Amino acid sequence: MTELITIERHIIEQQKKYPSATGEFSQLLADVTFAAKLVRREVIRAGLVDILGAHGSMNVQGEEVKKLDVFANEKFIQAIGHHGRFAVMGSEECEGIITPPEGKTSGKYVLLFDPLDGSSNIDANVGVGTIFSIYKRISDPTSGPGSLQDCLQKGVQQVAAGYVIYGSSVMLVYTTGQGVHGFTLDPTIGEFLLSHENITTPKRGKIYSMNEGYYRYFFDGVKKYIKYLQQEDKATNRPYSARYVGSLVADFHRNLLYGGIFIYPRTKKAPNGKLRLLYEANPLAFVCEQAGGRATDGYRRILDIEPEELHQRTPLFIGSEEDVKIAEEFEQGLRELEHDTELIPKMLAEVKKAESLLVK
User: Fold this and answer.
1) Quick one: what percent of the chain has pLDDT higher than 90?
2) How far apart are CA 158 and CA 136, in angstroms?
3) Out of 26, 113, 217, 315, which could bridge 268 as a Cys pair, Cβ 3.0 to 4.6 Å?
4) d(CA 91, CA 98)
5) In degrees rounded to 5, what are phi and psi of residue 346?
6) What is the reported pLDDT for 301?
7) What pLDDT sits at residue 1?
8) CATH of domain 7-196
9) 246, exposed or middle or buried, with CB in 10 Å at 0-12, 13-18, 19+?
10) What are the sequence ranges of the domains in the chain?
């Protein structure tokens, strides 16, 4: 019989690799797991209770807040804030930082999270997820609660990151810098059990994921990359298949397992990108790199970007290493499209124009 390993047991086993560990970090990860179970309970019941639809307000990003967004945000804050194991938290749904309740001790860690990614799909019963990221506080622990600066750390300083996907099954994937491991929730016993140990993403895939509805707003490099992926070439396994759910966690999770690339580039409408550096890009980049993948903004490694504000946005190219490298070359204008169907007519027109001038 296959040995059943719960996520709690796995976290404790990981902790043993660090002799100086106090257990506080493991307890914080357990709190995150508990909060995810609470959110999952409501996600699967969403169609039966008055929790679907708009909340009637806008979040700090200027987007309509869904009722389940609000619930997920509250549950994470309550589940983790109750124990005072954190110094400060940041949520995509909250404008400012979240500090421990008055009277609670302040912990050593910082938690940043997107409580319900893909919430615009909630009413259509499409998979949604939670993304989280953990850092050590850098402010003086004797000064009380953590500060904004504790949240504005480079992604490379993360000590743990992961996500939960609420789909046909509920799966939690996380890393502490020692590989990537996935756990599937067994609802009969209420436990996350190890189902995907040491996840490794393929060096190159056959899937690309992006919202091509914004094609007219893309810059030329990304447009050429899309055409490159759609061309037939057996040597590079092209054309690629387009797969786009519109829920970052769902798209990323599929590509992590099967190989491929997810792109949310800078556009003429959003030159700084749209995804959040701290709540989405950094944690998924940490997971991706630990699985052997690559994550950049098209020019820089995501984990090396210095955050300047809590809700900073960024372009994102993430997935299989070779796919991301090629996409970067197109984004940076270092690679031309083979057999460019637009370039050839332009060249012919220029030749005809030169010929007419010679005749004159």
Assistant:
1) 60
2) 8
3) 217
4) 8
5) -65, -40
6) 98
7) 41
8) 3.30.540.10
9) middle
10) 7-196, 207-341
CB atoms within 10 A of CB 170: 23
Would you mind telling me the total number of residues written for the chain in this entry? 360
Considering the entire predicted model, what is its pTM?
Answer: 0.88
Fold of 207-341: D-Maltodextrin-Binding Protein; domain 2 (3.40.190)
**3-state secondary structure at position 331:** helix
DSSP codes joined into one string, 163-224: EEEESSSEEEEEESSS-EEEEEEETTTTEEEEEE-S----SS-SEEE--GGGGGGB-HHHHH
**Lowest-confidence pick of 163-167, 202-206, 305-309:** 163-167
Spell out the alpha helix ranges (H) of the chain: 7-15, 24-45, 67-81, 148-151, 220-230, 248-258, 282-290, 321-331, 343-359
Q: Which residues contact 348 (CB under 8 A, 6 or more apart)?
A: none
Q: Which two tokens stand for residue 128?
A: 């949604």
69, 115, 130, 186 from 77: Cα distances, Å: 12, 10, 13, 24
Give the residue-averaged pLDDT of 214-232: 96
Quick check: 35 and 46 in contact, CB under 8 A?
no
Count of C-beta atoms within a 10 Å radius of residue 294: 23
Question: Would you say the C-alpha torsion 247, 207, 252, 170 has a positive or negative sign?
Answer: positive
